[in-house]
Design a protein that fits this description.
Length: 120
């Protein structure tokens, strides 16, 4: 039996249009603003037939055993009424610790993709 983790793909987001890109900015009071997007360098198709359905963002503090989900974004409009959701999302969470951000995105045709970024 295949484990779910064995189905997650990765790559360089500058060369692969499915990999979620992560950026962060440290704000006052231990807050961290995170932006996650798919298709910044190479546009991903965005229509009924082929689209990014969601992105989830996790944070694992440097001394924690497990990552914590800090954001979940759904992109439901894929051409209905000529409206298209772009796979770009921004959110803020609070942590006084450094750690690692993880993003997981889902393409309805090509499956799960991941990326990570250290927060220092």
């Amino acid at each position: 039996m295949t484990k779910l983790t064995e189905t997650v793909q990765s790559g360089d987001w500058k060369a692969e249009k499915h990999v979620p890109e992560l950026e962060f900015e440290k704000l006052e009071g231990g807050k961290i603003k995170v932006t996650a997007c798919v298709g910044k360098e190479i546009a991903h198709p965005n229509g009924f037939e082929h689209h990014i359905a969601w992105i989830k963002v996790f944070f694992k503090a440097e001394d924690s055993k497990f990552p914590v989900e800090v954001a979940s974004y759904q992109f439901p409009a894929h051409g209905e009424g000529e409206v298209f959701s772009e796979p770009v999302a921004c959110g803020v969470f609070k942590s006084e610790k450094n750690g690692t951000l993880y993003a997981l995105s889902y393409c309805n045709i090509h499956g799960l993709w991941e990326n990570s970024l250290e927060v220092k």
